[in-house]
Amino acid sequence: MAVIDDHSVVTGGVASWCAAADPPIDLAASYTNPSAFFDDPAASPAQFDVVILDLQFNQRVPDLGALTQLCEGGFRVVVYSSHADGDLVLDCLDIGAAVYVSKEEQPEQLIAAVRAAASSRAHVTGAMAQAMAQDHRPTRPALSPRERQVLLAWFQTESKALVGRHLHITPGTVGTHLERIRTKYAAVGRPAPTKAALVARAIQDRLVDANDL
C-alpha cells in the first residue's frame, strides 16, 4: 500500500494505524504529492494493491486529476480527504475511487476501507452514505428482479464465481448481468465503471440498503 498526502501528521497516523491493525497492513511507501508518485518507476498496481490519496495539494480546491490518472492506471484508490461535500464524494466514485473516507471519520474506517479495496469488496463509509442519501437525481434505470439479485449477491461476495455458486449460474452469466446493469446506468448518463460506483448507484436508487452490505 502507498499513501499520497503532503501532511506528515497524516502519513504518520496512517502508518501507525496500519501497524496496529490486526493483521497489520504493510505501508510500503509514502509520497508528498501525486507527481512524486507518478515519477517513481516502482509505483505500479503490482507493487501497491491500494493507494490512499488526498485530494488537495498546493491548491485551494480539490483536484481530481490525480485520482483520474490513478484509476485509469489500474490502481485501487481510497480517497482520504478533509472534504466531505456530497457532490465531490459522488464525483470521486464516478471516476473510479474504491472508497471515499472523510478525515473526520475514525481510523478504523480507513483501515476497513483499505481492506475492502484490497479485496475488491464493497464498503460504505459515513461520508459515502450521507452523499448517497442526499443524491436525488431522477434518472433511474429499470433493473429486472434477477439483475437486482445478482447485484446484491455481488456486493456481498468477493468474486463472480462465488455469486454464480450462490445463485446456481455460471460466472459468465454473472458477468453478463453486471455488464447489462452498467450499460443501463451509462444509458441514463450515470456511468458506474467500478464496484464502488455501482454500490453508490444502487443505494441512491433504493435497490439495496447500506445495511445489506
If you had to describe this structure to a student in words, what would you say it looks like?
The protein folds into two domains: 132 residues, 3-Layer(aba) Sandwich (Rossmann fold), CATH 3.40.50; 68 residues, Arc Repressor Mutant, subunit A (Orthogonal Bundle), CATH 1.10.10. It contains ten helices and five strands, in the order E-H-E-H-E-H-E-H-E-H-H-H-H-H-H. A five-stranded parallel sheet has the order 2-1-3-4-5, with helices on both faces.
Number of helices: 10
How many domains is the backbone divided into?
2
Class from secondary-structure proportions: alpha/beta
Percent of residues in helices comes to 40-55%
Task: Please compute the radius of gyration using only Cα atoms.
Answer: 17 Å
Give a short overview.
By secondary structure, this protein is an alpha/beta fold. The chain has helices at residues 8-20, 34-38, 65-72, 86-95, 107-118, 126-133, 145-156, 160-167, 171-187, 195-204, and strands at 2-4, 29-31, 51-53, 77-81, 99-102.
